[in-house]
Amino acid sequence: MSETAPVPRHLTAEALRTVLPMDAAIAAIDAALAAGLDPEADPARTAVDVPAGQLLLMPASSARYAGVKIAGVAPANPARGLPRITGTYLLLDGATLQPLATFDGPALTALRTPAVSAVAIAALTEDRPLDVLLYGTGPQAAGHVEAVRAVRTIRRLRVAGRDPARTAGFVDRCVEAGMPAEVADAAAVGAADLVVCCTSSRTPLFDGALLAEHATVVAMGSHEPAVREVDTATVRRALLYVEARSAALREAGDLLLAGVDERRTLVNLAELRTATVRRDVPRLFKSVGMAWQDIAVAAAAQARLAAAEPGRVVER
After folding, report:
1. Distances from the Cα of 144 to the Cαs of 107, 109, 125, in angstroms?
2. Distance between alpha carbon 175 and the CA centroid of its chain, in Å?
3. Could you read off the pLDDT of 71-116 as tens digits, one per residue?
4. pLDDT of amino acid 122
5. What is the CA radius of gyration of the chain?
6. From the candidate CATH numbers 3.30.1780.10, 3.90.1640.10, 3.40.718.10, 3.40.50.2000, the one assigned to the domain spanning 9-109+292-308
């Protein structure tokens, strides 16, 4: 007699963040890399242009699970009061491919992307209080502030945004959370130990010639070959770190538009965990988002649910 497939549980944005806080998401990304995950072997993202923007399909598998994220990128949505990123993640049992759980896709993305950045930041920056310059005021910006705080102390946070009212509101929320935060001024780039770019900008945000020699830059705002947040000067000055060379050379406009190809040294995230890092020249970590990150964080959330609610959570 065949079994009746159980109905998979859906994790809303609130439920996901309750079951898997930022420090646990960072640990899940680090644990996947420590276990020998090869970022270069991750399946390529499929992107399909549609009238509203793009549809993205991101499948991955691990020893225990398989999963796929279907995401939409709708640039006009914010003007309608709707999220720019939409979608759902489906987690499957690895042996049977039976559905185990679904997740709010934007919430999963807003959790795993800062977690990936945090792993890089922990490796690339000195373990001391940092002056941080943040570009952006949206969900990824908020997530990256949380992620930076999980691995480093923020001595001062400066925020640069396109909308003065939104930027001021973001700064106010950071101050209320106990951070020394302020709106960025023109000298902020040169004074920053860490520059974090979390925007949908299609052109560079700052002049890379102004970066301090010891600065680290994290750029995660785009996955399109013709779009970039950092300029050619930054890329030419910096040591370059990526999630995977394969993904970066397909999608990272920040690097491709600056002339980077397979001849340039790109250190991937797995290699970075054990690499010796020079801190006398700028360092750039460019991420585009990869499917292995989704499954690592979704699997960690599923495991926590199973441990907290034995007998209720679907596990096969």
Report:
1. 13, 12, 15
2. 23
3. 999 999 988 999 888 999 999 999 999 999 999 999 999 999 999 9
4. 98
5. 19
6. 3.30.1780.10
Lowest mean per-residue pLDDT among 139-143, 184-188, 240-244, 283-287: 184-188
79, 118, 138 from 173: Cα distances, Å: 22, 21, 12
Sequence-ordered list of residues with C-beta below 8 angstroms from that of 176, at least 6 positions apart, any chain: none
Domain 115-289 has CATH 3.40.50.720: yes
What the block records as the tokens of 122 is: 């922990």
Listed by start position, the domains of the chain span 9-109+292-308, 115-289
Residue 294 token pair: 């989704």
By DSSP bridging, strand 53-61 and strand 216-219 are unpaired
Q: What's the pLDDT at 315?
A: 62
Question: Would you place residue 308 in the very low, low, confident or very high pLDDT band (cuts 50, 70, 90)?
Answer: confident
CB contact set of 170 (below 8 Å; sequence gap of 6+): 137, 141, 142, 159, 161
* Residues β-bridged to residue 107: none
The single-letter code of the amino acid at 103 is F
Q: Which pair of tokens denotes residue 310?
A: 């034995």
